[in-house]
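Could you help me review a protein record that somebody else here produced? Here is the record exactly as it was handed to me:
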Amino acid sequence: MERNELDNLVQQFVVTTDAAQKEKLGHQIWDEALNSGIYPASINDLYMARGKNKCSGFTVPAMNLRALTYDLASAIFRSAKKINAGAFIFEIARSEMGYTDQKPLEYTTVCLAAAIREGFKGPVFIQGDHFQINAKKFKEDAKKEIEGLKKLIKESIEGGFLNIDIDSSTLVDLGNKDLAEEQRLNYEMCAEMTKYIRSLEPKGITISVGGEIGEVGTKNSTPEELGAFMKGYLAALPKGMTGISKVSVQTGTSHGGVVLPDGTIAKVKLDFDTLKTLSEVARKEYQMSGAVQHGASTLPEDAFHKFVAVETAEVHLATQFQNMIFESKNLPHELKEKMYSWVKENLKAEWKEGATEEQFIYSARKKVLGPFKKDLMSLSQAIRDKIGKELEEKFDFLFGQLNIKNTKDLVDKFIKPVKINKVIKSLDSKAEHFEGDD
């Protein structure tokens, strides 16, 4: 398929509201991907190999693409091909699906299309990030909240998400001095969701599941908390069932960063010693790949190489990519002004007392990405290519700092090729707005 033909196909696929048309276009993209040797995959076996000390020395970037997904994913594949990288993840959080209007199957399809566009071959890792339990809703009606999360998990697996991060850390009781009780609801829910995921796995695939012991923005995690969580979690799993491949921890960051009055981001002091210790415990005691760092994209550039130094398994990156789109010199000024006017008109209830306009817009502007998805995707391909090129430079930098050069060889070594059949459905409905923001 010619590049121009593919670009037009993806643009139509993203912007159309006709269900039959969307399904037809989605099938075309999947067929082209599978015929080209491109397919969704689980990174689990690579992570298990790392837990057994069969590989090390790199940190896998997991990237949330909230807007212009096709163009950013294309830039990622270009950056990866330059250095023979294969260990990188595309992800989207439960909350992001709502405010960016990207359902799982659409997200997967667009990422596969980007791989076709850039001539990338092999497995593509797509992940459900922060599949979170809302603590307030859980308290009000636990059964309903659990069923809602299971519905999301099922839809995501059917849409090609073969990597899922369960975040039940919202249920951690930090006021309880008994660590087992502090983590009890967390490990019980994580185990229940793991069992449910295993029941839905495509034949021949072990989905990579992540757990979380410390909600981002709270106190730093400890080895004792990890031990309490894992003891309860493993006991709750059926004998012989594969558990989580990694664990997310809190080390001092917050999602999106802390916004100062002038709209800039406050410097964050991240506790790399905690990250190193917890990664070591995760590998040595539980044969997992290590610890996962959330909320890292707005860190200073001189921080990223440290993730590799302390053997962090995975790092989640999101907000900075969104920021670069908003601040791009290639984003039409009139469109940006239109989006910001929408924020001030429709989200003024979120303007916190004492916050400057810059703080308010910075915090709220991500919520224009769904309402303006069609506007962004309808920009000329030339404009979108220029924005993609700006992001490509950022991906080049990050991939170098995280040392994923030649990880394509590791992926080929440890990831068994298993092509799954797609399930094209429900693409006509808008993404449900899921609570649990990141």
Remarks:
- The chain has one domain: 3-414.
